Amino acid sequence: MSLLALKDVRMSFGPVEALRGVSFSVAEGEAVALLGDNGAGKSTLMKTITGIYRPTGGAIRFDGQDLKEKDPGEIRRLGIEMIYQDLALAREQDVASNIFLGREPTRRLLGLPIRMIDTARIEAEAETIIRRLGARVPSVRYRVGDLSGGQQQSVAIARALTFSPKLVIMDEPTAALAVREVEHVLDLVRELKRQGIAVILISHRLTDVFAVCDRVIALRQGEVVADEAVAETSMNEVVAHIVGAG
Amino acid sequence: MNFGSMAMRRPAALHSLGNMIRLESLVVLLLLILALSLASPYFLSVSNALNILLATSVIGILGFGATFVIAAAGIDLSVGSILGFGAVTGALAVNALDLPWIIGIAVSLLAGAFCGLVNGLLTTRARVPAFIVTLGMLGVARGAALVLTNGQPVYGLPGPMVWLGQGRPFGVPVPAIIFLGVAAITHFVLSRTRFGKYALVIGDNQNAARATGIHVERHLVALYTLSGFLAGLAGLVSAARVNSGDPTAGTGYELAAITAAILGGTNLFGGRASVVGTLIGALIMGVLQNGLNLLAVSSFYQQMAIGAVLVLAVWLDQLNRGRGRA
Ligand SMILES: Nc1ncnc2c1ncn2[C@@H]1O[C@H](COP(=O)(O)OP(=O)(O)O)[C@@H](O)[C@H]1O
Ligand SMILES: [Mg+2]
Q1: Which residue, of A171, B49, B56, B85, has the fewest CB within 10 Å?
Q2: Domain count, chain A
Q3: DSSP state, A37?
């Protein structure tokens, strides 16, 4: 049974039809690559899944639930996390705050019914996660705006992995990274797969995609033009689909 | 990457304080106090300090509301008018309608919160920019206050309401107590609760707020409502101080409130804000005004001085940032 299933998903920005009836599904623990030229609609498609955009048509089901009327917070709680292309971090907040953003544990103030953020717990848990991920972040108290691009990405990744997701979506996570950091992201995808967590990876680097994904989906002008198992296709074939020569 | 240099930018003890407020603001305040103590023999005394707190209380209360709204990259230009509207409606409730004093207090607060709610709903639902919505409310709330009273102050409030402005338990003016009490509560809310953190995150990166499940629109409505509520409270206090609801009360205070917040280190573009900073910012203005009064300097010069201090404080901050984040 599939974990995520999209059926005829449509999305328009005014007159611009970014998605023209997209259907595909992702199984539990499966790693799927989503490919396509700039402007093909990849980011828009992922944002309809995470609830940032409400699709203008079609249906999205995840783990037996209809996502259509759910907001981004509810969808996260169902187990979908996304690492956004722009990372979606609050630069003025520290590392720990960013990792727990939107899901801060709280405690009572002096036993009163007043809830305050449990900063000590957030920092301790953020420390553990950062160390487990082997991320090179000097301290969880650092302001995120002061970190390097790679470090900021580690924070975004840590946030996506903290709440035991069932599906992790990564939107071009390797676009701005050095070679060693790219390896790190690919290892991470393998590790997620091993733990039975499904992944949707958006990337322009076909070698990476073929190295870690089970299936490739190609999107062109808001439509799925290919959906094939990695074992049954080749890079040349996929490129042909992306540019529309296939 | 050289993280060491950033951590060493300030001595450790000052570092955590510096995270909370802009140290430049505190330095400016202390220098002002020092200079005025030397310039006037009447400046440095407990009774004068209480005078300053009393005189600063209304602007300060508005400033705390402004801090939350600006934290979220919003702006509220209507608080001065809402103050007047709150003052008038509370006074009318106990005079024209003969309602008990407790209702009068509630009416002032709710009138303010209602205006703020309207601001919030219009900015988020109708998607009119906050600058325009609150500029509109500046006109509407002031006009309503004038219409309701025919432009005349509503004299005479019941004792308990007057006490809020004129009472002096243990010699401390009640408005000063309210001012510091609101400071303590709003400081806690901004720095320790989700409500405060989400305000900052919305101002920092609205997409990040949305993506992590924060209800951005709902939160903004709450923030404008809070700002309106505090303006209603400020209206209540200022009416109590003069024992009348004056429809022109609070004219121009919106700029003073914003100035207090910015002087205190709150970033006009959102994401960074501190209630303690705003407290210091409001005190800088209050101290300056009080000191220049003692020195018999014309109030025209006082306005110039406050404007100059504002630009100076923000400039010092820019210099410091330039060094620290190069
Ligand atoms: N917020 C938006 N408003 C209007 N048009 C948008 C918006 N986001 C994306 N688009 C348009 O939708 C199409 C798909 O964009 P996008 O999903 O970002 O593509 P990709 O991620 O594949 O590069 C493009 O034509 C883009 O201009
Ligand atoms: Mg994209």
Answers
A1: B49
A2: 2
A3: -
State mean pLDDT over B302-306.
81
Domains and CATH numbers, chain B: 44-320 (1.10.3470.10)
* Domain-ending residue, one of A135, A164, A193: A164
**Gap from A113 CA to chain B (nearest CA, Å):** 13
Give the domain CATH number at A225: 3.40.50.300
Of A164, A198, A229, the residue at which a domain comes to its end is: A164
From the candidates B188, B201, B217, B274, which should be mutated to test the interface with A, based on the most A CB atoms within 10 A?
B201
* Cβ contact, residue pair B213, A102, below 8 Å: yes
Would you say the CB of residue A218 lies under 6 angstroms from ligand 1? no
Length of chain B: 326
pLDDT 10s digits, A26-75: 999 999 999 999 999 999 999 999 999 999 999 999 999 999 889 999 99
User: Does the model's ipTM exceed the 0.85 cut?
Assistant: yes
Query: B193, A115: Cβ pair inside 8 Å?
Result: yes
Characterize the bridge pairing of strands A215-220 and A223-229: antiparallel
Instruction: For residue A11, give the 3-state DSSP assignment.
Output: strand
pTM, two decimal places: 0.92
Note whether B204 contacts A91, CB cutoff 8 Å. yes
> Residue B165: in which H helix or E strand, if any?
helix B159-166
A76 in contact with B, Cβ within 8 Å: yes
Do A96 and A72 share a domain, yes or no? Answer: no
For residues B271 and B288, the answer to whether their CB atoms sit within 8 Å is: no
